[in-house]
Amino acid sequence: MGQNTLIHLTGVCKSFTNAQGESTGVLRDVDIDVTDGTLMAVVGLNGAGKTTLLRLIAGMEKPDAGEIKILCESAQYSQPTTGIGGVSPQNKIPSLNMSRVPAVQARSAEILSEQQGVGGGSPKLGYVWQDYRSSLLPWYDAADNIALPLKAEGMNRKERREKAVELLREVGEPFAPDARIYNLSGGQQQLIAILRSVVVSPDVMLMDEPLSALDQLRAWEVSLLLEKLWLKRKPPMLFISHDIDDAILLANEILFVSKSHGGVAARIKVELPRPRTIPMLASPAVQEIRSKIFALFDAEKRLTTVPWKGK
Amino acid sequence: MRKTNNGLSVLYGWLLVLGAWAAVSYLFKVNTALLPAPHAVFASLGDIFHSNGFTADLGSTLARALAGYLIAAVLGIVVGLLLGSFPFLYRMLCSPLDFFRSTPVTALYPMFVLFLGVQDMSKIAMTAWACFFVVAINSAYGVFHSNPVRTQMARLYGCSSWQTLRWVTFYEALPSIVVGLKVALSYALIVTVVCEMFMGSHYGLGQKINDSYTMYDMPKLFGYVFITGMVGYLANLIFAYFERRLLPWVKTLSSI
Lengths: 311, 256
Fold this sequence. Notes:
The complex is a heterodimer. By secondary structure, chain A is an alpha/beta fold. In chain A, 32% of the residues lie in helices and 23% in strands. Chain A has ten helices and ten strands. In chain A, the strands form two sheets. Chain A has a six-stranded mixed beta sheet, with helices on both faces. The model of chain A is unreliable at 76-120 (pLDDT under 50). Chain B is mainly α. Chain B has a single domain (47-246), classed as MetI-like (MetI-like fold). Chain B is built from ten helices and no strands. Chain B has helices spanning 6-27, 38-50, 54-85, 87-102, 109-116, 120-144, 148-156, 161-199, 205-214, 218-246. In chain B, α8 (161-199) packs antiparallel against α10 (218-246). Chains A and B meet through α5 of A and α7 and α8 of B.
């Protein structure tokens, strides 16, 4: 089994301070390893820390304690993992990509900002924001939005638009490549955000509720589409879902993030053959997984002392 | 508001203004040395259009206003984006900037004349000065109010700071920049005309307003005021036309 990418979290803690100065712990002592071939659904209550977990992995948030590493063979440089801001062009050792030694990447907000734009220096991330609408650029058309990561890589306009059109064709061309973002429906905009996240063949796929704007049928369709895109290279993928069936249909592992535990409460395997089909959701195996998840939610209800809306 | 009635409503508005003016001057017989009658002003407009220097008057006022405006627009956008991108720079400079923005440029008139003389240079400089601050401050605000998710997105997908500024932040700030440019457009005409009136110049609408005033030629004075107003009005219309095409993704654009 060729293991190219590994997401490694050890003892990660993260808390936020609100306007009143009270600190609320979201994640306490989280240890997770995610490797190639893992398609992980992240489920849990609102405020359990699902989005925080994804943002931490993406380097958009810095952990209070603990370590987050993305070990990636395809990244061309090895960088010291200690210290922030210790990244200078001099200590980047090129051409490690030929050896079988995985390059080590420590990711934090500061380092991310320094690494980006160097070119090939860090693992490529695909990210779909929960607020997908705000993450699109309405002054560009659909194809230019999808191709933005390629533009940052320096690919010329004709080539990168061809790539975007190719991707659109793969999903049945639901709208024209030169469609204006503000004329598209929420679901179509979300699809653009998804296609943008896979246009560079990412080493890691992170999706924050990528199906939230879709009706049930479309959600299943896009789930199966995501599976198809994922199956090409099987990079580690984490996606947040509020729909248990979506989670089961797409994932091979379900991560239950608990509010009361302050972190991961359970990991549930989903052992169904790929490619998945919608009728599989009616199988007894799936029913069993469902009841496990229901039990977890039920426990959460009894253990969570903080009511849904503040105090 | 229904669009079909728009043209007609505008016409009614003008008829109302004209009617009120005609009523005051024909029915109440107001002193024509203070308020000239509509027909006298229309006649003077004809004279003005056929006079020798009219194109030169209109041309020099437009050239001065436009020169000052364009200088201010370019400098203002660049400085504003810089201020927006480097908060420490803004914190340091926002107070002096606000001070100079709030100081009427006309109060600085003596300084401009002393440093730059009474020719075109100081008129353009005063125009640029007045326009610069409003463009710069609005551009900076535009950057401050840009959506952090978009910037984050650009960084995550590997855009450099410079690329993020060009592909994301600039467009995010654009609606606010446009507001600044729009306000500055009226400033440009005001300051240019005031400068022409007080500094004097060979040609220029402000000069002609002042000339008509000193000679108590009220119909001509009104004629030039009307033309100057029309220039400002048309400039705004042209601006609004391009504004809509420049920012098609901004749905709630004020049309003021």
